[in-house]
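Tokens as discussed.
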């Protein structure tokens, strides 16, 4: 199904290592609003999306989130390569280094490992699309926070790109929600129109 191109979706060319900065950014790899959760969320939800527009969109964005994982991983890798023992200790990177050396491992900035409970696939398309829109806004907020504390232009450049894509994804999910609602029974907001939710005519 997928064709892998051996290049990043957006280039990452970081000159200066900075393990402390890497700890901030790794939250967008495996944190609560990171790219792993996003890709798993959308690629799981697509199976219960009843219409082609939504199903195709979830597949497209879920696939793009895999590319974003790769960008974030490249940033972390380049920020942590060639570290000295002194840099590791002084930056607070020691606990991560002891467990993973400088390998890429999914965790939040606070050290909490990635957990699939951080995303939902409910099976109700309206519920899922609202979750998706919220997820994109939370990811955008995280990138905002990163840009507030990170000043290296080589790092900020790909982070800005990723932030822009979160905004685009939010807009696209809004379009998919409107398309879904256009298909619904006009008397009922919810996609599956359960019998207990319909108003009985007298």
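Sequence:
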């Amino acid at each position: 199904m997928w064709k892998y191109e051996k290049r990043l979706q957006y280039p990452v060319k970081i000159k200066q290592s900075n393990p402390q900065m890497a700890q901030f950014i790794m939250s967008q790899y495996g944190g609560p609003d990171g790219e792993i959760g996003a890709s798993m969320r959308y690629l799981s939800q697509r199976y219960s999306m009843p219409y082609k527009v939504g199903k195709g969109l979830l597949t497209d964005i879920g696939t793009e989130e895999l590319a974003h994982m790769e960008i974030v991983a490249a940033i972390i890798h380049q920020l942590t390569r060639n570290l000295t023992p002194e840099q590791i200790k002084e930056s607070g990177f020691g606990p991560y280094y002891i467990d993973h050396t400088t390998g890429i491992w999914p965790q939040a900035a606070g050290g909490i490992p990635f957990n699939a409970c951080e995303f939902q696939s409910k099976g109700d398309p309206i519920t899922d699309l609202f979750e998706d829109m919220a997820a994109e806004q939370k990811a955008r907020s995280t990138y905002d926070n990163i840009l507030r504390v990170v000043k290296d232009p080589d790092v900020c450049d790909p982070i800005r790109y990723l932030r822009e894509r979160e905004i685009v994804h939010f807009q696209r999910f809004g379009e998919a929600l409107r398309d879904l609602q256009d298909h619904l029974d006009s008397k009922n907001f919810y996609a599956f129109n359960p019998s207990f939710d319909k108003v009985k005519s007298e």
